[in-house]
Write a structure and sequence with these properties.
It is a single chain. By secondary structure, the chain is α/β, with parallel strands linked by helices. It has helices at about 25-35, 80-85, 110-120, 135-145, 160-170, 185-190, 205-215, 225-230, and strands at about 10-15, 40-45, 50-55, 90-95, 130, 150-155, 175, 195-200, 215-220. About 35% of the residues lie in helices and about 20% in strands. Strand 8, helix 7 and strand 9 (about 215-220) form a beta-alpha-beta unit. Helix 3 crosses helix 4 and helix 7 (about 205-215) crosses helix 8. Residues about 1-5 have low confidence and may be disordered.
């Protein structure tokens, strides 16, 4: 992903998820067509251990993803392989979903093994960031392949403690919620040589403010709006 401090990566949150149905091939292609640098998407295991792209642990009809074979999922739910095919040479942020209190929780973190296997087979380590709120999951990714960039997702907590934890575990990126990020957060992150990708921000004024602070990436539902906001700086 782009590392120049003069450039702020625009990352499509579940693709261009305002203009298109989230986490679909159309949303990812749409985000890249708008000019997004990267797309972010959520990954879970199906019943038959396929890597499928879906935010919630269950479908709209109530079926659990983890209890449904990939062949029985709705047509709009893609596999990771299909998303990577659609992304082609573009960068992607794979978020591994593994909520401890959600159905389908993976205590052995075998999702990490499956994600690493796909990345290694395709030889796309240079184009992938793997993130999760589940620290043991991103720890496992890093242990399996140190060449894969990893990020800890955070939504609450003390900035200093979160940043120090992330760095101590060897992760080079932290993905904080937008409400956590201020000048102090950025100062601490840069002191620890951490990249910062902020989620999820759609407001043009806040997007410009974050870019001015020096964040490395902004995860947004509206890549087109974000790109226009940055162009107006």
């Amino acid at each position: 992903m782009t590392s120049s401090k003069a450039h702020t990566d625009i990352i499509g949150h579940r693709g261009a998820s305002t203009a298109f149905r989230e986490n679909t091939i159309e949303a990812f292609v749409g985000a890249f067509d708008m000019g997004a640098d990267c797309v972010e998407f959520d990954v879970r295991f199906s019943l038959d251990k396929a890597l499928v792209v879906h935010h919630d642990p269950h479908l709209a009809d109530g079926r659990n993803i983890c209890d449904t074979a990939v062949a029985d999922l709705p047509a709009h739910v893609p596999t990771v392989e299909q998303v990577l095919d659609a992304a082609a040479s573009h960068a992607v942020n794979i978020e591994i979903k593994n909520g401890e209190h959600q159905v389908g929780f993976d205590p052995a973190r075998r999702l990490a093994d499956a994600v690493v296997a796909v990345i290694q087979r395709r030889e796309i380590q240079h184009a992938v960031l793997v993130s999760s709120f589940d620290l043991p999951m991103v720890d496992r990714i890093l242990n399996l392949d140190p060449n894969i960039a990893t990020a800890l997702l955070v939504a609450r907590g003390d900035a200093q403690a979160l940043i120090e934890l992330c760095r101590a575990r060897g992760h080079r990126t932290i993905n904080p919620a937008t409400w956590l990020v201020d000048d102090e957060f950025m100062s601490i992150a840069k002191l620890h040589d951490l990249r910062v990708n902020v989620w999820t921000e759609d407001d043009p004024d806040r997007i410009r403010q974050l870019a001015h602070m020096g964040v490395d990436g902004i995860v947004t539902n509206v890549p087109d709006v974000a790109i226009k906001a940055l162009a107006a700086m």
